[in-house]
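Q: What would this chain look like folded?
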Amino acid sequence: MDSFDIASKLLQMLHSISPQLQNITKIVHFALKNHKLEDYLLPTIIDVIDDKQLDSSVKSNVFQFIELLLIESYQNKDKFNGAYVHGLMQNLPYIIKQVIVNKSNLHNTYLSLCNISKVFDVDCDEYILRFSCDLLTEEDLVKIANNEEFEQEEKSKEKEEDLVKCWKILLQDKRQSQYERARLLKHGDLTADIVDEDQMFSTRDKTKPETTKFLSKRQILARMEDDREVHKRSKESFWVVNRDKDKNANFITENEFLDHYWNRFQPLDEKENNEFLDSLKDMNDMVRCSYKDKY
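A: My prediction, written as structure tokens:
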């Protein structure tokens, strides 16, 4: 395939990307396999992020692809010559702005940004702490009480690292999300009446042509499955056990743990083996008797 065909294939793959790690990894490997065509493939990635017609959930998946692509290329500099790293890092603040236009992508973007910051050795503890806190200021509370619109902060003219800019953009949007929610709760129209099903689903005129396009059952189920996958991936870090022997001398590695217990006992002789099998048979018989169905 020539450079045009490869860029077209990457574009197609990104438009149909799903949150499954296998799918994201497959696309990352395709991009890294063709890392010499970075000049063609990098604009393709930006074009996908720029696509106004692309669903926000797909853009969130694309950002996870960007996260993994950055990490893989950066950690294998000798093999891929740092392909995509410089270009993506320069465009990362802009990419994040496009991804978190929909505030539902805030948490996924936050997790990806944590991983990128860790790999690039950027101290993000302050930002992580702030992200999990209430970001509204006293001035914000006054404006909410007066039912005023949220005002974006002016851009800092100081030269900052790209990742620092990304964190500030993320925190700004998180603050805006909290502001709009608080304002809606305080000044939004509430009803204490019981709302029946017909009223609940008649908030817009479905007879108008522009409102007759709805998601199919298959699309809704696909989105639900994607959300479950994203939620599962967000929890994976809680299950990781990292025992670095050089940095943590008090811990043993998994292989050392296995070798210790594998070599701790000698092979059983025939008598010990028979006793073990008899005990196992007794246990199985006891379990079998606990079932109502004897067969």
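The chain has three domains: 3-188, 193-240, 255-290.
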